[in-house]
Amino acid sequence: MALPRLTGALRSFSNVTKQDNYNEEVADLQMKRSKLHEQIVGLDLTWKKIVKFLNEKLEKSEMQSVNEDLKDLLQAAKQIVGMDHGKEAIESAAAFLFKTFHLRDSVGHKETKAIRQMFGPFPSSSATAACNATNRITSHFCEDSLTALVQMTTDECDDRILFGKNLAFSFDMHDLDHLDELPINGESQKTISLDYKKFLADHFQEHSTPDLKAVEKTNDSFLWCEVEKYLNATLSEMAEATRVEDLCCTLYDMLASVKSGDELQDELFELLGPDGLELIEKLLQNRITIVDKFLNSSNDHKLQALQDNCKKILGENAKPNYGCQVTIQSEQEKQLMKQYRREEKRIARREKKAGEDGEIAEGLCFDPKELRIHREQALMNARSVPVLSRQRDSDVEKIRYPHVYDSQAEAMKTSAFIAGAKMILPEGIQRENNKMYEEVKIPYSEPMPVGFQEKPVYIQDLDEIGQLAFKGMRRLNRIQSIVFETAYNTNENMLICAPTGAGKTNIAMLTVLHEIRQHFQQGVIKKNEFKIVYVAPMKALAAEMTNYFSKRLEPLGIVVKELTGDMQLSKNEILRTQMLVTTPEKWDVVTRKSVGDVALSQIVKLLILDEVHLLHEDRGPVLESIVARTLRQVESTQSMIRILGLSATLPNYLDVATFLHVNPCIGLFYFDGRFRPVPLGQTFLGVKSANKVQQLNNMDEVCYESVLKQVKAGHQVMVFVHARNATVRTAMSLIERAKNNGQISYFLPTQGPEYGHAEKQVQKSRNKQVRELFPDGFSIHHAGMLRQDRNLVESLFSNGHIKVLVCTATLAWGVNLPAHAVIIKGTQIYAAKRGSFVDLGILDVMQIFGRAGRPQFDKFGEGIIITTHDKLSHYLTLLTQQNPIESQFLESLADNLNAEIALGTVTNVEEAVKWISYTYLYVRMRANPLVYGISHKAYQIDPTLAKHREQLVIEVGRKLDKARMIRFEERTGYFSSTDLGRTASHYYIKYSTIETFNELFDAHKTESDIFAIVSKAEEFDQIKVREEEIEELDALLNNFCELSAPGGVENSYGKINILLQTYISRGEMDSFSLISDSAYVAQNAARIVRALFEIALRKRWPAMTYRLLNLSKVIDKRLWGWASPLRQFSVLPPHILTRLEEKNLTVDKLKDMRKDEIGHILHHVNIGLKVKQCVHQIPSVTMEASIQPITRTVLRVTLSICPDFTWNDQVHGTVGEPWWIWVEDPTNDHIYHSEYFLVLKKQVISKEAQLLVFTIPIFEPLPSQYYIRAVSDRWLGAEAVCIINFQHLILPERHPPHTELLDLQPLPITALGCEAYEALYNFSHFNPVQTQIFHTLYHTDCNVLLGAPTGSGKTVAAELAIFRVFNKYPTSKAVYIAPLKALVRERMDDWKVRIEEKLGKK
User: Fold this and answer.
1) Number of H helices, E strands in the chain
2) What's residue 724's pLDDT?
3) 993 compared with 322, residue with greater pLDDT
4) Which residues form a coiled coil (predicted)?
């Protein structure tokens, strides 16, 4: 018989495998890891150590110069590593340089080689600079102390402490079953007696510790005797047999659980009290022995009774409790157990008294085999049951939805332990772990077999509309065919989860066609009855989708337009468009503005949301608010808006379906990876090195190996990096490695006739790097290149001339360019939004992996992601869809609630609570209350979470009220919107920014104050100052900042200010993080200044309004206000503009000069004409105002505005030029009237004047003058002022006199000339007032205002006017309005008799 393997034995007989259950907290684990990480990093020479060493050894005076040198060294390191890496990498590179150069005085061959190996190609000037700086530093020391510094760090290596458990193996872990006989190496053993008691006795004598000796005689089982001993010592007066049994049962229960020793110790102490300390110690020492013996023991009767008891208690409980499973008991069960034990004791006591104690044990026999079968059965069950399942969840699992193809849910999972996080991975996975990296390979999945009920849909079978739209396609693919019926022939809301590249766009197309077919009558499409909105996550994608849909829908005459931050549309264009492609933010803003676009949002009939899994990213809340708004609109107006959600595969698709109001049995479609057009194999590589520089080097190395492997196999590769300048560096270092290893031949482009043609094209390119890299078969692609170069690179790659393309992620989003393999090198990406390096988002990874595999050529594609080891499990879980997506709505609840209040859709707390129930937040709060800070108890008491939602709303309401964005009356719970809140909502300003403005903003601020306020806005909160940027910021501050920047380079708001001014001055920046920060700042600042402008206008501060309007144009145009307005024309060359500014030629002067004069002044004869044309294209208007007082305090102004410039479509667009017009009072510093005004193209061309009529207040004493100011909304230097002068204004009298009562003969009633009327009056003549106004009332249609004292017969006057209506307009109606109900009633009673009965009128 072969000997048992040691590992097998250890596994079965020891507790080694129990370590599986690693229930130390994850946070704890991470802490230990980071400590270890610090330790490992610390072993090397670090920057901190160098600085510390210098500070200790040198005097203050010397440190000054040394600090400069250190700065130089860092600067050099930055040049060598590259701008796009964080501080850590730069410092560690500097330390590496210091180590390299500390004993050298020049850059030798050896050093160059070392640096090149570490960083790839580098500028030699930087290396020289580093060497010189290092030498200046080291000149202060002798060689020995330096060697000591470098040595010191290596000595510390020896005493590394690793964390983890030090497992002690004791060999008496397990005793063999006493029936077994084992021959060892063929010698027969001395015979083993079958007497169990004797065996036990022998066993304990051989193995046990001395203090067990005393026990073995008393009793058979160790546990039993220990417990008995303890009880004898403590409770001698109780009936101990029953107690022993009971206690053993409980103790065994505890020992067999999966708790760690420490946890058990506490629990045992609670149970046994201070007397039991010895017992606890013994129990824990022999825990394994006890448990194992118990499981394998024979019919020893006391044990038997004990086991039986346990079995009973646990059996009733229907939860198996063998080995290491957790028993979860509810409160009730616990109580039952207690009661049950009490009963047991009572019965046992009674039986004990009856003296039948022998009988109990006899009939009950206990079979270990049976126990084992039970245990296996239990394990089998446990396999399929989720741990800690809630009742509700397990019910959900049982429902099979017809269109959910989710292999993950059905397939068995293997559990792997990756980077310390437990994960479930698909089968067939391969792992490799070596010193440099850990690699996890997920092979591609076979495509799903075609089901028998699946029939492909052929285009020729569709109706005419469908055939037109899908021209050139033969049939729909599998996914499209499966959803076809629901998408094309029903109005159901749908959620479609499918992998990238599986053809989701065409599904959107199907729903669009369904919508069009509903508005198709008698061969005509009613285009003004519907709008379709397609929400795409990025501008690049929006542009691509617009092109795609325009092409397909053109034959149907449907207009598709893009509506994003880049592409503004006028009202008219929106009306003429049937389909809008937009981004979530833009659509949110459009639907927030109730007045203008209410018609627009009400005829939307189909809303398509692309990439719904964005819900868990920062932009999730925007999607939630759009959907919530749409769903509420559907319910309030009972209109039909269909929602289609498209998403990548996500784990909790049911939640998302609930949120989109999708019926899971009809509209929910889930397709997993087997449906990709080209199956995808994924490889994850985690680079292990802790030292940042080494890590970058290893990444390059690993990247090169992966690229080489693919290229050798004849595939093309795309390498994605995350900064524009990293593309060149990566390409260079790959070429460098290939040349050093002599493998460059694999990369060279194949020679052929086409190659020559391609080469010619490349040589024409203006981009130096593209030209240099091409001969080696490499190229680069990023958004900073010219459009034509990008197109060139794309075509070269798709024709196969380029083997390796290094690009940024924009390529994956905007252009459909597949390759067999894609590699993501490094996952740290600089996010301006966060102001730091963050992990590449899952969305980007999926999009990039979606580019792997070319549908027509490849059997499968490969996606490789190279990251650091600590992020490995993060990406694995994300890409194998393990994390349910949660809602991020709470963070922006205040802003979204304010938007709804401003829109008028939420007016009180109750409605707000209802509104929250439409969000994804609500769906997830109910599914997973703990994440959102709701305790389980609270959830049980309040399952709809109404209380919790109300709490949220009230809290947010108070915050908004405090910021004056709404008015919130807590007593009644009503919200009302304010100007400030509406402005914030329209301009997307965050609530905390408004708070800042309330604090800092007033009517008298200069330009630089405004910049300072803007740079403190919450929107820029995440922008940090990094040490490596300080120098560059300093340079920018000195070169480009025209205004002071409070805060300076050290503070983040100072940095924002500097970036904003540099952006306006069009300054150049080097560091990648600054470039992207700057773009982010400019984008947001423009919006914030616009909002401030509106706030100032609403507060009626003229000087401030004017300043802010100008500043917002300054940011838009990137021109300072004092530059020449002609700089806004790109056609004029810069040197001419500079000359214009030097000569101080203003626009007005230039208007009066002839073109040849201008040419002479500028020493450039031909340019005169161009300048003259530009001058006349700057928008300008002439205004004339005429005034007319209405009363002494109200003045009517008639303003005629005449455009005075030439129109040019390239410059002005095709619609009109917007202007702001306001009337300001310079003495009181107040705006009395303001309006937004559009000068239309046709008016400019026909020079037609426009009239504006408005009223303004005037005060006494009369001010000298008011100004009417017109300022262009877009153009700098385009403004006009018109003065209203009050010198010759004649106001009406203060109290106009009464109308003179003329001395007239009273009129007899016969003047009515109608007997029926005369009969109504019981007097013969009208009184003087009535006499005087009789003619006007009875014989004319003039409007009359009659003011007369009570009782002077005004009602009769009214009747006269009514008779006039009866006479002249018998079919018309007369309306009488009285202020009080009583008066109306009185008139009714009177006129019912007189007019109805006597005149026969109604």
Assistant:
1) 61, 31
2) 76
3) 993
4) 19-80
* 383-392: long-range pairs with CB below 8 Å, 24+: 387/326, 388/328
Return the closest-CA partner of residue 534 out of 578, 480, 592.
Answer: 578
Q: Please give the share of the chain, as a percent, with pLDDT higher than 70.
A: 82
What residues contact residue 1202 under an 8 Å CB cut-off, 6+ apart?
1181, 1182, 1183, 1184, 1247, 1248, 1249, 1250
* pLDDT band at residue 320 using 50, 70 and 90 as cut-offs: very low
Rounded Cα distance, 802 and 792, in Å: 11
**Sign of the CA dihedral with 458 first, then 461, 466, and 469 last:** positive
The Cα-based distances of 27 to 12, 489, 791 in angstroms read 31, 52, 48
For the segment 227-279, what is each residue's pLDDT rounded down to a tens digit? 777 777 776 544 445 567 777 777 777 777 777 777 777 777 777 777 777 78
Q: Record the tokens describing residue 617, joined without a space.
A: 């990213």
pLDDT, position 8: 60
In whole angstroms, what is the distance from residue 423 CA to residue 485 CA? 37
Query: Which of 138-147, 593-602, 931-940 has the weakest average pLDDT?
Result: 593-602
Picking from 738, 736, 786, 743, the residue whose alpha carbon sits closest to that of residue 765 is: 786
Collapsing DSSP states into helix, strand and coil, what is residue 1214? Answer: coil
Which H or E element spans position 230?
helix 222-234
Question: What is the reported pLDDT for 1080?
Answer: 84
pLDDT at 1198: 93
Cβ distance 250 to 227 under 8 Å?
no
By CB neighbour count within 10 A (0-12 exposed, 13-18 middle, 19+ buried), where does 1036 fall?
buried
Residue 862 three-state SS: strand
The whole-number average pLDDT for the span 731-736 is 89
- The C-alpha angle 688, 691, 695, rounded to 5 degrees, equals 55
Q: 1156-1165 long-range contacts, Cβ below 8 Å, gap at least 24?
A: 1162/1136, 1163/1139, 1164/1136
DSSP, residue by residue, 310-346: HHHHHHHTT----TT------HHHHHHHHHHHHHHHH
Question: Rounded to an integer, what distance in angstroms lies between the CA atom of residue 1160 and that of residue 403?
Answer: 78
What is the distance between the alpha carbons of residues 621 and 893, in angstroms, rounded to a whole number? 8
Buried b (16+ CB within 10 A) or exposed e, 147-179: eebbeebeeeeeeeeeeeeeeeeeeebebeebe
Structure tokens, 530: 């519907």
Q: Residue type for 1317, please?
A: Y
- CA-to-CA distance for 248 and 263, rounded, in angstroms? 19
User: Rounded to an integer, what distance in angstroms lies between the CA atom of residue 1188 and that of residue 1196?
Assistant: 5
As a whole number of angstroms, the distance between CA 911 and CA 906 comes to: 6
Beta bridge partner(s), residue 671: 405
